[in-house]
Amino acid sequence: MSQNAPIPQYHPPQAQAAGQAMPSGQNHAPASYAPPSMPSSPPPIAAEPGLSRPGSTQSAKSAAMKSLDNISQRIDKRTIQTLSFASIGFLIFFLIIAATILLGIRSSHHAQEATTSYQTSQDIASDAARNLDGQLMWIDQAVASRGNAQQIVDLVARGQNIDAALIMDAQNNVLAATTGARAAAPSLSLENFPDAGLKVVSLIGENGGVSPVIMRKAGNAYLAAILAPGSIVNYSDRTSALILSSGGLIDAPPAMGRIGTLAYLGLGADRLAAMQNGIPVSHTMNGQEVWISLRNIPNSTSIAALSIKPKTMPEGWSRNLFLLSILFIGICWLFWILLRNMMQQIGMVEEAYGQNEISQQRYRAALEGNRGGIWEIDTENNIAYLSRSLASLLGLEAKDQEISVPQFLGLFHESDRERMFSATRRAHVGGEFEIDMNVAHLPLTLSCRGRPSTRGSDYAKVVIGVAMDVTEQRGASNRLRAAEARLSDALRSMNDSFALWDPRGRLVLWNARYEEFFGFQPGNLEPGMPRETIDFHAKNVIAETYAIEGDTAQDILLTDGRWIRYQETPTQDGGFVSIGSDLSGIRTREYQLQQNEAALQKTIDVLRKSQFRIVELAENYEQEKIRAEEASQSKSEFLANMSHELRTPLNAINGFSDIMKKEMFGPLGDPRYKEYVNDILFSGQHLLSLINDILDMSKIEAGKMSLNTEFMQLNDMVTQVIRIVRGRAEENRLKLIYDDHALPEIQADPRAVKQVLLNLMTNAIKFTPEGGAVTCEVTAKSAGLIIKISDTGIGIAQEDIDRLAKPFEQIDSQHSRQHEGTGLGLALSKSLVELHGGNFKIESTLGEGTQVTFTLPNKPPTVKTVEETNEVGNEISRLAQDIADVLTDSDNHDATVPPMPHVAQQPPMPGTPQSSPVVPPAPISEMMPHSAEPSYEGQVAYEGQPSYEGQAAAQPSTGYVIAPPPKPQSAA
Fold first, then answer.
1. How many C-beta atoms lie closer than 10 Å to residue 202's C-beta?
2. To 10 degrees, what angle do helices 317-369 and 54-74 make?
3. Residue 891 clears pLDDT 80, i.e. is over it
4. 231, HSE (Cβ side, Cα atoms, 13 Å)
5. What CATH number is given to the structural domain containing 540?
6. Fewer CB atoms inside 10 Å of the end CB: C or N, the chain?
7. Which of 571, 583, 416 is closest to 505 using CA atoms?
8. More confident residue, 224 or 104
């Protein structure tokens, strides 16, 4: 086309001019093919600054230079000074805020210290009052003992923290005193003795030690108890003391006793008297700032507790000051960096403009060398821009040109204009696009890629794109598609499956028969898929794979029953061709005959072995049945004899030893006889209880234990059990806790319930160290009662819980072996609870304690006896006869089975599963039901022990809290 030829015009359709969308089917370009000499896709178009048309380039350059001049004019010395003043003002404001924060932290910390000092003085006053009340109670008990003066003095001196005691008359004459106490009498003044009969003073030793003295008037005499220093107030940290309102000392550190209260504190008497009760006062003591707080002890207006707390700096004060300093320095440095970078950016903008011009020249050269160019469409102004290289390629004058959009679209074929126009209109919604365009009147095909963009302060919408000459690539792609279409038609006409693989094992070509054989739907396979992936999915339809002897092919059995003869042939380029033929009619029959023969032979072998085994089992069963009946009869006879032979002498032993213990016919004489009698009685009762437990356990295991149920109140039973075990709990210094509240009646065996409670509570007491507690809780539910017995004892490990509820099982530990027991208590308790229809559960933590929980329903379940209707011996004989009949039929059938062709089984091809072996039937002995072992819901950590009823005072019905008496202090 001549360069002076008129540009064809293009007028868009009315629907497009009105902004309507074109059909979506016209927006997709056909697949492209890029030869090695051309890039497959145009380079990015919006990232380079030099892609605008010449007119816009000149205007952009002039705008950039004008912007640089404006920036240089604005950022002058005056602007920099203004920024500097603003920075200094911000820094001053930051310093004020930081100082305010630090002072606020310090003020809050001091307020918290004052509150702590007030609380400390209150705690000291409470402890001092409690200690004084305890000492005064002890003195009053000694006075009330009605002994003589010396006995009262000695009794008082035995009190805790009391060093000495003495009794004086009204003339300060000592009537009785302990060792070393007479010397203190002259220092104890009886003048102005309070009417209440109580006076608290102190004695100060030579080294400054302050000994509190409690003086109590007893009739016409006065009792003085001299306490150890620090017995009323703990002044180990030298920050607390007990003083009088006048400044006198009651209990204080030796340093305060040597110089006095006022000198120690550095206070005047008037200021000490002016201090309000409990309000902390800031004071400087020995050059250190402290909080001093006075708090009157309860029930006294003249005795006060003194608390001294040093003032400290807030935690993290120095750290906060350091962080704020670092932050201040960092802000200063940041302002300096910003001002310096601002000046540097101006120079960088000027340098970037020069580099942009160079980059634009290089980009134009690259486009023109690859037979392409840049185009741009301004959708709002309806103007199109063509670069010089693109204009030359389209047959126009070789220069940058601006033409209207209809003229630009008129350069292309009529069938492509609407697609191009629609794509540019929707670019700002749909994003980047790529379309192949045929040039009108020229044998050229251009690949046009466009990207939406905006320009200027008004954000004008434009579409910038690159057009590349892809005429040769599209021609080669069309020829390749035609060849592939002819090859596909040939492959589709084949009855066998066909697949072509490249040297790297990737799929190149296949037919529909291949998809049908290996379970692929149309569209699942794509060129380039690796063979490992295809084999992985194909194994879902492959049942077995067999290799053919003397051949490279293999037979494949599909899951739908078809057989495929699969063979692979290598190609010259290193790939291979896979061809599969359908052999289902032949191989299916062979495979079925082979499988039937193998299964029949294995079944015959198993039946032959089972026949001999069943006969042997039948004989062994009869012998074991006879032995079991004889053993059961012997056990019953032994238990009956033991019940009579052992109980008779034990009753005599227990009866006579009980008479001797109570000394019914006179004293025994030596006290050791009584101790021996107690041991005999305890051992006899213990042995009798063990025999009863063994007999009860035997009845339960034999299923002959019956419950004598009646309506009962569990509260009465628990109260009775607590009275029984209270004596042992007091010996071990334990607490028994039970909250007695209203409970509904239940129907149960009272003797069995009592035995369970005794066993569990005795175990809890036995395995709980001194100072612990044993708690019993009963909760009523709609179905019955839930009883929990917990302790704070030694506990057990989790691995020992599973075996404790079994007969004769005990924990093998040093602590458990210190107590008697056979391990029957828990097994018997669990069996009795389950006999009532309840559950038995144990939870324990080693070193923390154990909790046993069991339930009792409102009424025990009714036990129904089911008689066995089938004899095991008869069943075994019947099975043996059935097997004999089957073997007879199989021997007759073997003669009619034809020989099977031999097919060697080989490892399957990659991705196919192995054939499943034939599993022989299970032996007859394994198919017979086995008796299930009993399952226990919970195990406990204790052994059931017998308990002995004794006389004890009844506790209030509101609950039981029995605390152990205090231990006497050792001489050390």
1. 23
2. 150
3. no
4. 21
5. 3.30.450
6. C
7. 571
8. 224
Average pLDDT over residues 517-529: 89
Helix (H) or strand (E) holding 605, with range, is helix 584-662
Question: In angstroms, rounded to a whole number, what is the distance separating the alpha carbons of residues 288 and 268?
Answer: 17
Dist. CA 476–CA 759, nearest whole Å = 98
CATH number at residue 821: 3.30.565.10
Question: What band does 788 get if pLDDT is binned at 50, 70 and 90?
Answer: very high
Q: How far apart are CA 723 and CA 758, in angstroms?
A: 11
Domain co-membership, 718 together with 575: no
Q: Which of 580, 596, 614 lies at the terminal end of a domain, its last residue?
A: 580
Q: Which of 834, 688, 690 is nearest to 759 (CA)?
A: 690
pLDDT digits (tens, 9 = 90+) for 425-481: 888 888 899 888 899 888 888 889 999 988 877 788 899 998 888 888 887 888 888
- How far apart CA 520 and CA 679 sit, in angstroms, is 90
What are the angstrom distances between the C-alpha of 60 and each of 50, 386, 399, 461? 10, 17, 19, 17
Percent of the chain predicted with pLDDT > 90: 8
Query: For the sheet containing 210-218, what is the strand order?
Result: 174-177, 162-168, 221-227, 210-218, 198-204
Is position 506 within any domain? Answer: yes
CB neighbours (10 Å) of residue 416?
20
Which helix (H) or strand (E) segment holds residue 124: the answer is helix 77-143
Distance in angstroms (rounded) separating the CA atoms of residues 109 and 97 = 18
DSSP 485-498: HHHHHHHHT-SSEE
Range of the domain at 236: 104-310
User: Do residues 750 and 858 lie in contact, with contact meaning Cβ atoms separated by under 8 Å?
Assistant: no
Among 310, 325, 351, give the residue marking a domain's end. Answer: 310
Q: Is the model's pLDDT at 791 over the cut of 80?
A: yes
Q: For residue 96, give both structure tokens.
A: 């004020």
Q: Give yes or no for a contact between 468 and 372, defined as CB atoms under 8 angstroms apart.
A: yes
Taking the C-alpha atoms of residue 519 and residue 497, their distance in angstroms, rounded to an integer, is: 12
Query: Helix (H, G, I), strand (E, B), or coil: what is residue 791?
Result: strand
What is the rounded CA–CA span in Å between residue 872 and residue 867? 14
Give the residue carrying structure tokens 């001196």.
Answer: 157
714 in the same domain as 575: no
What are the pLDDT digits (tens) for 238-278?
A: 678 888 877 788 888 888 888 888 888 888 777 777 776 76
Residue 733 lies in a domain: yes
Residue 251 lies in a domain: yes
| Burial environment of residue 206 by CB neighbours within 10 A (0 to 12, 13 to 18, 19 or more) | exposed
One-letter amino acid for residue 248 of the chain: G
Which DSSP category does 762 fall into? Answer: H
* Strand-pair category, 460-469 with 554-558: unpaired
- Higher pLDDT pick, 698 / 405: 405
Say yes or no: 569 and 715 in one domain: no
Residue 159 contacts residue 138 (beta carbons within 8 Å)? yes
In a domain, 523, yes or no: yes
The Cβ of residue 632 has, within 10 Å, a number of other Cβ atoms equal to 11
pTM (two decimals): 0.31
**Distance separating alpha carbons of residues 411 and 406, to the nearest angstrom:** 9
Based on the domain organization, do 711 and 569 belong to the same domain?
Answer: no
Cα Rg, the chain, nearest whole Å = 54
Q: Is the pLDDT of residue 19 over 50?
A: no
Structure tokens at 429: 């919604």
Element of type H or E holding 589 = helix 584-662
* Closest to 21 in 3D by CA, of 454, 425, 506, 431: 425
Spatial distance between the Cα atoms of 141 and 144, rounded to a whole number of angstroms: 5
Cα separations in angstroms, 24 against 20, 415, 432: 12, 15, 15
Tokens of 7: 């540009």
Q: Which band of pLDDT confidence, cut at 50, 70 and 90, is reported for residue 795?
A: confident
Q: Which one-letter amino acid corresponds to residue 617?
A: L
Number of structural domains found in the chain = 3
Q: Cα torsion for 555, 558, 560, 564, to the nearest 10°? A: -40
pLDDT value, residue 888: 67
